[in-house]
Amino acid sequence: MNMNMHVRLIATVIIFSMAVFAQPNATTDTPFQVKYAANLAAGDSVFNITNTGTVGGNICVNVYTFSPDEQLIACCACVVTPNGLVSLSARNDLIVKTLTPAVPSAIVVKLLATTGGACNASAPGALATGLAAWGTTIHAAPGSAAFSVTETRFTPSTLGAAELARISALCGFIQTNGSGFGICNSCRPGALGGGKL
């Protein structure tokens, strides 16, 4: 290989690398991410959230918790600093004081990363990248009374305008009319791990 070809190859690799690192990963770095937690009567599920620093500042993580029958039962928001790590417990933060009197044994958790404005799940700001989140859930072993805990990433999802309007309006209703119920506890610094069942 002559020197000109070698220089062109190195330049191509550098340019390609710069293009790759300049773009967020479209398959994982999305503002809207979803996960479920099951068997909450048997034990707790935890959610760990970080800000990868993509936007160069804080992000607001808006949290929307749904029961299996599609009811928004709690919402809240927390500021996550670049490279910071915060966590939520399903039992102690998300379903501790639900809007409805029934406490579900399974939930769907939707996270929405935003920037700008007040960090308020009823009035989210502009959508932001940089959200990375993981959560645990409890699985019953087939044919046994034993349980196991697994941890996986939240699923990157597409947020439609109708869903954004719906979840923010429902959260606004909860904030206005819930008398403190339906407001989940905010994130705490650090990570939570799966506990013994």
3D structure, described in words:
This protein has helices at 3-22, 90-94, 161-177; strands at 32-37, 46-51, 59-66, 72-80, 85-89, 107-115, 126-127, 131-140, 147-153, 155-156, 188-189. It has 197 residues and is an alpha+beta fold. The protein has one domain (24-189): Hypothetical Protein Tm1070, Chain: A (Sandwich). The strands form 2 sheets. Strands 1, 3, 4, 6, 7 and 10 form a 6-stranded antiparallel β-sheet that branches. Strands 9-8-2-5-11 form a 5-stranded antiparallel β-sheet. β3 and β4 form a beta hairpin. The longest helix has 20 residues, at 3-22. It is globular. It starts with a helix and ends in an 8-residue tail after the last strand. Mean pLDDT is 86; it is low at 6-25.
List the helices and strands and how they pair.
Layout: H1 3-22, E1 32-37, E2 46-51, E3 59-66, E4 72-80, E5 85-89, H2 90-94, E6 107-115, E7 126-127, E8 131-140, E9 147-153, E10 155-156, H3 161-177, E11 188-189
